Amino acid sequence: MKHSLLRYINYIIIGMCLSSIHSCANLGQPQGLGPTGILYASYTLALSERPLPKQTLKQGKSCLKRMGILYVTGDASIESATKNASIREVFRIEKEATNYLSLYSTLCTVVWGI
Q1: In 3D, which of 60, 61, 62, 64 has the Cα closest to residue 89?
Q2: DSSP three-state, residue 43
Q3: Phi and psi at residue 72, in whole multiples of 5°?
Q4: ∠105-107-112 over CA atoms, to 5°?
Q5: Paired strand residues for 42
Q6: Phi and psi of 74, rounded to 5°?
Q7: Which of 15, 34, 50 is nearest to 97 (CA)?
Q8: Residue 74: closest CA among 94, 90, 97, 58
């Protein structure tokens, strides 16, 4: 009886520890924006937009990627996205995020401009 009660208490403590680690590790999106799914998530968020010009806009994109829970690499800055497409004037900024099984995630900054 005593051993089964101790085992039950140990399971509760382990469960609480794992739950708190999950929150600290942010196993969803690397940026913590929007909803995160354990199996899959994909969404785009518009962060800012100005009235669009009549000319065709160029699209610049920069991303960071997370593999596993310990390795993140890349540059998802607005500056990097504008350099990638030689954009001088920004008209729209979006964030795109994907998550596969909480093992591979991306966060991209998408910039539209001329």
Answers
A1: 60
A2: strand
A3: -130, 135
A4: 150
A5: 98
A6: 125, -175
A7: 34
A8: 97
Tens digits of per-residue pLDDT, 49-70? 888 888 999 999 999 998 887 8
AA identity, residue 75: D
| Beta bridge pairs of residue 74 | 64
Q: How far apart are CA 86 and CA 88, in angstroms?
A: 6
- Order of strands, sheet of 90-100, starting from the edge strand that comes earlier in the sequence: 40-49, 90-100, 104-113, 58-67, 71-74
In the numeric block, which tokens belong to residue 111? 């910039």
Nearest to 61 by CA among 76, 74, 45, 46: 76
Beta bridge partners of 71: 67
Tell me, yes or no, if the pTM score tops 0.70. no
